[in-house]
Amino acid sequence: MSDTKKGMNTICTHLGGVEDTKFKGAVSPLYMSTSYAFEDVEAKRYPRYFNTPNQEALCKKIAALEHTEAALIFGSGMAAISTALMTFLKAGDHIVLQQTLYGGTYNFAVSQFEKFGISHSFTTGWKVEDFEKEIRNNTKVIYIETPSNPLLTITALRGISSLCEKHGILSIIDNTFASPINQNPADFGIDIICHSATKYMGGHSDICAGTVAASKEHMDKIFATAICFGGSLSDYTVWLLERSIKTMGLRVKAQNANAMEMAKYLSTNQDVETVYYPGLESHPDHELAKSQMNGYGGMLSFELKEGIEVSQFFKALKLIKPSMSLAGIESTVLSPTKTSHALMSPEDREKQGIKDSLIRFSLGIEEMEDLVEDIEQAITKVKSMTVPA
User: Fold this and answer.
1) Strand ranges inside the chain, DSSP E
2) What is the pTM of this model?
3) pLDDT at 4
């Protein structure tokens, strides 16, 4: 049985480790050296070349998880994304980017492409036709994110891959919100898959990393750019990331279940205005998500009713942590306008539908009743502070 045909938890647990041939330990030994021999060796190893023993082994695990031939690991999600983009774009090229997008990627596009002579267009939506009408003669890449950050919109993977094939364009996806547990874009024809491995792959809020997975042909080109950009990951963090991925399947499935239950609860809460979660039948992209995802993910967003101030709500929480990142085993909330999308102008956030009242909610693995109790006591406290006019 090939590696990609093995069960997800089996891949997470067993594949891509370094065998301890000397002491037969159950976990990978950690090779911390930044200097290796160059005489009489099969490969000249160097951390910036992504080929130390721990780096090399983990790349195999990432590739197997994403059903691709090869992968690389980077120092952050943005290191992975920017390296992938700049590998396939040059002066005179054009890229189409999805409108609903992580703020860091959006900022990279608007602040960096112009200085390299690369033009870009953002779609007006996230449907396939929104991408097609932005394609030009010099378009080289279509970049998507599904589910999107922070509104959880869903883009048709098969539709985008067919569109790219029709026009001879490369497709790149940020698959962070889904994780390989919930979605494998390569199975739908997407060329290059990026992740912030800080999130579900790391899963414990203690690792900063990124990954890119694709065919060997595409990864060879990305490697040539990556060794120049120098965005490699330290071997200690590589070792921690391998350890964390072993439990990713279990963690993500628990987070999926909590997010589904939380979305249903929030949808019935009289103090909540709107809930964004693709697992809800009321979500406009629910059927599409159902057709291309194995699970709906641990992320959702919601808006409180007018008069319940978001900052006060955050301060009133006792269990759920107001925190900058996502996908840890602990539940966290944040304001996208103050964090992930703060670099966007208010006008651009408004175009995406990101309101100041929007709360992004990353579900952890806690007991559901405890999370609900925390939300209810926080809302009650904030409402009690509001003095009627």
Assistant:
1) 70-74, 94-97, 119-122, 139-145, 170-174, 192-196, 210-214, 272-276, 299-304, 321-322, 332-334, 358-362
2) 0.94
3) 61
